[in-house]
């Protein structure tokens, strides 16, 4: 797909090496069409890794997409080079007067903190409220999904007795839903979190629709506002080795982590990784871009 990103963004070289079509700013200006405008609010500490993962997942449609990378102003990342942030990232102040076809809010490794104690919570609340009038469809991921469900609908999160880490099977509840078009009855997806939301809380709220869940990992996919809000409690965008790196990081810190479930062959960390989730992850993002953004967004962004 022609993802329109800055010519010098590090993700460009990585994606092109994977034979993914990335459109440079120069080439994009020669096409007489309106690209979709999607912004990515990146709350993860390793921003280059996360932006590359998300851009890769947006790579399977022929639609030209113009991507803006957003960071919080309240909290400044210590794990991403300053020159990268200054060159490629904007803050909410830079975009508050703009409108977008799509908006993505990532997760963040802060699940054990109460929402109101997160340093940038007030800023995130302003952004989430802003999306309702400035964005056609907003996609919330993992902790971002928990934050969105809590702020918009009062859905609480609950601590888990141990970290939910691994690849889990999920079942589709509404196979005719466009977001799940082409999915198998069972599909795999990664989870990596210390908290959860309960399906019973989702089902009590008529404004929310539970689309997919796992017997082992719980809620996976929730829809609201006829697709204008999508909440994903897992990490389909993860690279094959992301959970391995998290596991090894926690081992090095002496945290005695459990081995990610259903991830290594024979559940042996010294063995190969079984990649069982990428096809459905790409299909999910393709469906979101096509059916929930491109097919329904107004041609004039001013009408959002």
TrEMBL record:
GO molecular function: homoserine O-acetyltransferase activity; homoserine O-succinyltransferase activity
Role according to the record: Transfers an acetyl group from acetyl-CoA to L-homoserine, forming acetyl-L-homoserine.
Keyword annotations: Acyltransferase, Amino-acid biosynthesis, Cytoplasm, Methionine biosynthesis, Transferase
Gene: metA
Subcellular locations according to the entry: Cytoplasm
Enzyme Commission number, as recorded: 2.3.1.31
Any one Gene Ontology cellular component term annotated for this protein: cytoplasm
Similarity comment text for this entry: Belongs to the MetA family.
NCBIfam families the record matches: metA (TIGR01001)
Active site: 142 (acyl-thioester intermediate), 235 (proton acceptor), 237
Pathway(s): Amino-acid biosynthesis; L-methionine biosynthesis via de novo pathway; O-acetyl-L-homoserine from L-homoserine: step 1/1
Site residues by UniProt (Important for substrate specificity): 192
Enzymatic reactions: L-homoserine + acetyl-CoA = O-acetyl-L-homoserine + CoA
UniProt record, GO biological process: L-methionine biosynthetic process from homoserine via O-succinyl-L-homoserine and cystathionine
Keyword Acyltransferase carried by entry: yes
Marked site positions, Important for acyl-CoA specificity: 111
Primary site of residence: cytoplasm
InterPro entries, alphabetized: Class_I_gatase-like (IPR029062), HST_MetA (IPR005697), MetA_family (IPR033752)
Binding site for substrate: 163, 192, 249
Pfam families reported for this sequence: HTS
Identification of the protein by name: Homoserine O-acetyltransferase
